[in-house]
Specification:
This protein is an alpha/beta fold and 816 residues long. It has 7 domains: 2-105, 3-Layer(aba) Sandwich (GIY-YIG endonuclease), CATH 3.40.1440.60; 112-172; 183-263; 281-461, 3-Layer(aba) Sandwich (Rossmann fold), CATH 3.40.50; 471-515 and 576-710, 3-Layer(aba) Sandwich (Rossmann fold); 518-575, no CATH class; 721-813, Ribosomal protein S10 (Alpha-Beta Plaits, 2-Layer Sandwich), CATH 3.30.70.600. 35% of the residues lie in helices and 22% in strands.
Length: 816
């Protein structure tokens, strides 16, 4: 008898043993997928962990349904890395696999399939079973795997669906993605023969009997003289109040010419690769330093100010790696960033680049996965968000973690609650690869590691082209309010600068860290504000859809006309979000193009690219956004950055609030003045004397680092202590309080004063579940391994208490 141990994508700690016959045992290897029955009626796709001949004691093994792969789709490197992730972040291997693999690889009895869009298929190439499934899908939009079982009247149907998926006929239903078709934008210009003044005058005279055509020409002439930007056909039509027919007549007569501009980001257009730029003196020096550091250290931190040209240094290093035949992983915190970087890197490396992140459809992710696994040249450089860490690299030589300080690298939910930066260091170590982190505002932990010699440290102090760092000015809005110098949420100082910049045809970014119109709606008569029924937060008003929405659980209701408590119609909004700023801007600057970038406007797969593209093409004059804007984007024509209110960043109940505020404000400021002229940043605040704001205004990272480090040392926080956060959730408040108190006491026996809590977080109920946190601090000299073991033992005892069976526990190691 032969057996295999299988890892299932479910949150259970152990592997499961199934029996196989002799031939299957000879064929199967670790990392292949098998479809297996589990429980009474469930089917799962599991990963083979090992093949052996030791029968398990105590239960009868079931046999597998099907082998789904010809060769392993998971490498031994990946399994080692995932085991480390599961062990370090205290979750099960199954949870790591569920997070790591694209969902199409993990068909299970809950999966829903549907027909692929506009796919033709040849009936002769299909088996009878495949044909039956397709026939059913012609009549229904989607099918559950269990429906397929009843159609085919057999249990193991996973392989049939897998084959249809591989042929591209069906797809796994996921979130609906918008399909991206490259948008051609139509622009209009005057034919060259009429550009001279004399010819134009004669032309206008000849059109005296065609007033509509004449109006179009006059407006085109006016728009061209006002601005050097290309004139879009729609803008011209609106301005002249003309029909499309009038434009067509002028084009047919040869008086106007139309031309189209297409931007398509994901597809490589196949232009010849451009030469890699030569580095300037400062970059070259840093590049040499990085190379030298790599001889002694595996990890190097590049601390370079915003716009110092870090990307060009990365490009040079990537080129060397590619030439030596190695794979490169370039990790970024934000999908919006990958969008912009792809274009830059494609100029240098052409088709060698693949992109991997969660806004891609399942099919696209499976394709990239397979290309990396087969070491195809088109996936030699992978750019991606944190999930790209899980790809099946076999020959990884170099990892770049750009903007390494970003909190987006940390996954908070679901498990594994990993930090992609730290996990990348382990991955590099497994592959004996080098890792370079880059940031203008490194996290305290990384900078501390570099200062104490654990990592190499290279600094780049000058901006590229010796452009000056932007001038930062703090505006006291408390004072401005007192003197009545505010227009809505804009101080006179900010408006003055904005008008100046717009006059010079340059662009502006405004930063406000809240989306929606206003965070609180309050009745001025009785003071009641509408709350979310599932969470302890007030509902945010979204004017665009005239809705009140909860940003935690997605609950929404139509905006009410009168107060729910007293019925009076005196509802007032408090606080402000990006939507409100956008509305105010439209009345302040009616002639300028204003756009907004936040979670509400970037839902679709390519919505980022469309906004970034419009900003690069100078079709947007003012962009309002949340922190998405702060992350390393590079725009050539931004002269002014305005921070609407810096205070809601600083007053956050978190030990990293000051560090994060410094990073965010410094990064937002870094978007200004990236070419010859110096940029300007205005930060509006009620407290201009705050230490962090002073440090931001003079760009004093070292000062912030020293001060924060001292505080962390005094109050026993990272990097001097490790932290483990244990989160308890339950629908019953008394039960969750009791459960967390029990757990806290069990930990106190061993760790005494290092246990903080149990305490509810600032928002104590989300999605109808009450939340209570425990925080455990672990001194440097205490074994992390043994501490985790002890927590796991306490958790085991906890799980056996019947009273607490409904309480959910999340353990978050290094919860920052």
């Amino acid at each position: 008898m032969y057996f295999i141990d299988v890892i299932l994508p479910i949150p259970l700690k152990q592997t499961f043993t199934y029996s196989v016959n002799k031939d299957e045992a000879a064929f199967l290897k670790p990392g292949m997928r098998v479809a297996v029955p589990f429980g009474k009626s469930k089917v799962y796709t599991g990963i083979v962990y090992q093949v052996h001949d030791q029968a398990p004691t105590g239960y009868e093994t079931k046999s597998i349904d099907h082998i789904l792969d010809e060769s392993p789709i998971i490498t031994s490197f990946q399994l080692k890395h995932w085991e480390w992730l599961a062990k370090y972040y205290m979750c099960s291997l199954g949870e790591v696999i569920k997070a790591a693999l694209p969902s199409a690889f993990l068909l299970e009895s809950e999966t829903i399939i549907k027909l692929a869009v506009e796919k033709e298929w040849d009936e002769n190439l299909l088996s009878d079973e495949e044909f039956l499934v397709l026939e059913a899908l012609q009549h229904q939009s989607s099918l559950h795997i269990n429906d397929v079982r009843s159609i085919l009247d057999k249990k193991n149907v996973v392989s049939v669906i897998q084959k249809l998926f591989e042929k591209g006929i069906v797809e796994v239903e996921e979130t609906v993605y918008e399909q991206y078709t490259p948008k051609l934008k139509r622009y209009i210009k005057l034919a060259t023969e009429y550009t001279s003044e004399e010819n134009l005058k004669n032309l206008l005279d000849s059109l005296s009997r065609a007033p509509k055509q004449r109006a179009v020409l006059m407006n085109l002439f006016m728009l061209t003289s006002q601005s050097k930007k290309p004139i879009g056909s729609i803008a011209l039509q609106k301005k002249s109040d003309a029909s499309a027919g009038t434009l067509k007549t002028l084009i047919d007569k040869g008086i106007l010419e139309e031309y189209f501009v297409q931007h398509d980001r994901v597809e490589f257009s196949g232009e010849a690769s451009s030469e890699i730029k030569t580095l300037n003196e400062a970059q070259l020096f840093s590049y040499q330093e990085i190379k030298e550091s790599f001889q002694e250290k595996e990890v190097v931190l590049l601390h370079g100010v915003t716009s110092s040209g870090k990307t060009e240094i990365y490009v040079r290093l990537i080129e060397e790696m590619i030439n030596s035949g190695k794979q490169v992983l370039y990790m970024l915190p934000e999908i919006a960033l990958t969008t912009q970087l792809i274009t830059r890197l494609q100029k240098y490396f052409g088709e060698k680049i693949s992109v991997y992140h969660s806004k891609f459809s399942v099919n696209e992710r499976v394709e990239v996965w397979n290309n990396v696994l087969q070491e195809k040249p088109k996936a030699q450089v992978v750019i991606g968000a944190r999930s790209s860490l899980f790809l099946p690299f076999k020959n990884l030589g170099f990892i770049i973690v750009d903007e390494e300080h970003e909190p987006s690298f940390k996954q908070y939910s679901p498990a594994p609650r990993y930090n992609a930066r730290d996990s990348a260091i382990v991955l590099a170590n497994l592959h004996k690869a080098k890792l370079l982190m880059g940031s203008a505002t490194p996290s305290l932990e990384s900078y501390h590691n570099a200062k104490t010699g654990k990592y190499g440290l290279v600094t780049l102090k000058k901006r590229f082209g010796n452009v000056l760092m932007p001038e930062i000015e703090l505006v006291d809005i408390k004072e401005k309010n007192r003197k009545k110098q505010m227009t809505g949420h804009f101080s006179d100082r900010l408006l003055e600068e904005m008008r100046e910049v717009l006059k010079n045809e340059e662009q502006i970014i405004l930063f406000q860290n809240r989306r929606g119109f206003s965070p609180v709606v309050e009745c001025t008569t009785c003071g009641v504000s509408p709350q979310c029924p599932n969470c302890d937060v007030s509902l945010t008003f979204h004017q665009f859809k005239n809705q009140l929405r909860c940003h935690y659980c997605g609950y929404k209701i139509a905006m009410m006309h009168s107060c729910i408590a007293c019925g009076s119609e005196t509802l007032d909004t408090k606080g402000f979000g990006t939507e409100q700023i956008e509305t105010e801007l439209k009345s302040l600057f009616p002639d300028h193009k204003i756009a907004r970038m936040d979670q509400d406007t970037t839902k679709g797969k390519n919505s980022y690219s469309k906004l970034i593209e419009a900003l690069e093409n100078e079709e947007i004059d003012i962009l309002v956004g949340t922190q998405m804007l702060a992350k390393g984007l590079d725009f050539r024509n931004i002269r002014l950055v305005g921070v609407m209110n810096a205070d809601n960043l600083l007053n956050f109940p978190d030990f990293r609030a000051h560090e994060r505020s410094f990073q965010l404000l410094q990064q937002v400021s870094g978007r200004a003045g990236r070419t010859e002229k110096r940029g300007k940043v205005l930060i509006q605040t009620y407290n201009p004397y705050h230490q962090i704001l002073k440090q931001v205004s003079v760009n004093d990272y070292e000062g912030m680092y020293k001060e924060q480090l001292e505080e962390r040392y005094n109050y026993k926080y990272p990097p001097f202590y490790r932290t483990v956060k244990i989160v308890f959730k339950d629908k019953n408040l008394t039960r969750v309080q009791k459960a967390s108190a029990w757990f806290g006491q069990a930990l106190e026996i061993k760790f005494k004063e290092h246990v903080l809590g149990p305490e509810p977080p600032p928002i104590g109920r989300i999605k109808n579940k009450y939340i209570i946190n425990l925080l455990l601090k672990i001194p440097k000299n205490q074994s992390l391994e043994k501490t985790k073991q002890y927590i796991a033992n306490v958790q085991r005892s906890f799980n056996s208490i019947k009273e607490f069976s409904s309480v959910r526990i999340h353990i978050d190691v290094d919860n920052y």
